[in-house]
Write a structure and sequence with these properties.
This protein has 504 residues and is mainly β. It is built from 3 helices and 19 strands. It has one domain: Beta Barrel (Porin). It has an 18-stranded antiparallel β-barrel. The longest helix is centred in the first third of the chain and has 16 residues. The radius of gyration is 23 Å and the shape is globular.
């Protein structure tokens, strides 16, 4: 291949990578100096051949305090623990999360391979450790003592040839991770057993993949859900002046066996569905439109869906849903701390009639919702209107601070309020209308409440980072109506965390 073609491909790859940088979401500060890892630095110091090898890992410890949050699996009937419940149940939880990842990798001109192990531990978490057909009490849903996180090989070299192949257990991450992400905030994270073909040239980079999501289960080797397939194509082009454009088509196909594929899944497994998601995302490139930035996401869905909520029809429903995300901001580049002001609107459609033969609640797929709909992790992009205000500062190269506010409304009061995992709070139940818990009641007000978050991160050294945050949720009329029974009542919620991350 001519050298100028190689340069073009390399430049294209750099532009595509830069286009994935986030504007609206909090980003921790970069390390003060590049860090290859202690083992890598020692091995590579006197032996150039060791540049092909990669030995290292990371450790993370996080303490979280959650007041007036529902504790999954805690209590039943009148003692059920619910988000924002004031009286009659345990709604306070504090726990310590520890995660260790260790990797070994090798890269040659035409191939590479990586193996990464993980240990995720939890101390003091009162949440049930699993969902599914046989719920299990343990150290909480974010414990998975030891397991294989990634193990894959790649074949190809985009400087020499436009196609490459990556096969094995791996993370999938696209766009800002609103639909597909590695869920790195979680103590376990998310991986897929996947095969991915990448086609990259000066016009676009496109991934064609098919995969099965891996089910974390503490005490057992994690396996993929054989009945839940996720496939698609995701393409990014830098050829629109001053912008990058993503176009994608994603398919999630789960059979009725998917929900009971394993006895003790750490995350809820899907009901039967065949959902096809298509969309486009236009994003301004950093610094290309002056101090302004913006992103537009337009997403549609078709297919069929088996609604798992009590009272819903047993047959699969025709699925028609959509989501819209608009965000923009202005950065004061010449001011102290480079402040950025931003605003965002996110809307995921809801279902106007849960009892008919159509389903219109947007399917959030495999997101990293922690970045988008409040850092307290209360909601997802389903049956929601979220208006978000963002104020970011970088007072020092090692320090970044974000202050954010959200206001939430139900998109349709005939549908449920969904948590960050995409599960309906209450669903259709016998308590509708009497204030005993969350359900579907079209007479309730649509205003759910507001959240205020403050997050700060400091790069202590080139291998250590400290982060802390606080969030407060002010309950709205919908929550007050849902928990209006005097024996329950509603109250605001608080969240605090402190986190230390180390690379080695």
């Amino acid at each position: 291949m001519p050298s100028n073609s190689k340069s073009t491909l390399s430049a294209s790859a750099i532009v595509l990578a830069a286009a994935t940088q986030l504007y609206g979401q909090y980003a921790p500060p970069p390390p003060p100096a590049p860090f290859q890892g202690f083992i890598n630095e020692w091995l590579r110091k006197d032996d150039p051949y060791m540049q092909k090898w990669d030995f290292g890992g990371s450790a993370r410890v996080r303490y979280e305090l959650r007041d007036n949050f529902g504790i999954a699996g805690s209590g039943a009937g009148p003692t059920t623990s619910l988000d924002f419940r004031k009286d009659g149940a345990d709604v306070d939880n504090a726990y310590l999360l520890e995660r260790l990842r260790v990797r070994a990798g090798y890269t040659d001109k035409w191939f590479s391979a990586l193996v990464e192990g993980r240990s995720s531990l939890a101390q003091g978490d009162e949440r049930f450790a699993s969902t599914g057909p046989v719920p299990k009490k343990g150290e909480g849903p974010e414990q998975d003592s030891i397991d294989l996180h990634q193990a894959y090989f790649t074949v190809g070299n985009h400087k020499e040839f436009p196609l490459s192949l990556k096969v094995g257990r791996q993370e999938l991450s696209y766009g800002e991770e609103r639909l597909v992400g590695a869920f790195a905030w979680n103590n376990i994270g998310r991986v897929f057993d996947a095969a991915k073909l990448r086609w990259q040239n000066e016009w676009f980079g496109a991934d064609f993949f098919t995969s099965r999501v891996v089910i974390p289960e503490d005490g057992r080797f994690n396996v993929a859900n054989d009945y839940d397939w996720f496939s698609g194509v995701y393409a990014t082009s830098p050829k629109i002046p001053k912008h990058s454009l993503d176009i994608y088509f994603l398919s999630r196909n789960a059979s009725p066996e998917a929900a009971i594929a394993e006895p003790h899944p750490q995350f809820p497994q899907p009901s039967a569905r065949d959902i096809y998601t298509f969309g486009a995302r236009l994003k301004s490139n950093p610094g290309q439109i002056g101090n302004w930035d913006y992103t537009i996401d337009l997403i549609g869905q078709l297919g069929n869906f088996r609604d798992p909520r009590a009272g819903a029809p047993a047959a699969r429903l025709d699925h028609e849903a959509y989501a819209v995300v608009l965000q923009g901001g202005y950065t004061f580049k010449d001011a102290w701390a480079t402040p950025r002001l931003g605003v965002e609107y996110a809307h995921g459609s809801g279902d106007s009639d849960p009892t008919d033969d159509k389903h219109s609640t947007f399917e959030n797929l495999f997101p990293t919702n922690h970045k988008f709909y409040g850092y307290m992790d209360l909601f997802s992009l389903q049956n929601i209107h979220d208006v978000r205000g963002i104020f970011q500062l970088k007072p020092h190269p090692r320090l970044s601070v974000a202050v954010e506010g959200h206001s939430f409304w139900l998109a349709d009061t005939s549908d449920s309020l969904y948590n960050a995992g995409g599960v309906a709070r209450g669903g259709v139940n016998t308590n509708v209308g009497n204030g005993n818990g969350y359900g579907v009641n079209s007479t309730y007000d649509s205003y759910v409440g507001s959240e205020v978050d403050v997050v700060a991160g400091y790069a202590v050294t080139r291998f250590a980072q400290l982060e802390a945050g606080y969030g407060h949720f002010f309950v709205g009329d919908y929550v007050e109506d849902s928990l209006s029974n005097p024996t329950r009542g509603s109250t605001d919620a608080d969240w605090v965390y402190v986190q230390l991350s180390l690379n080695f």
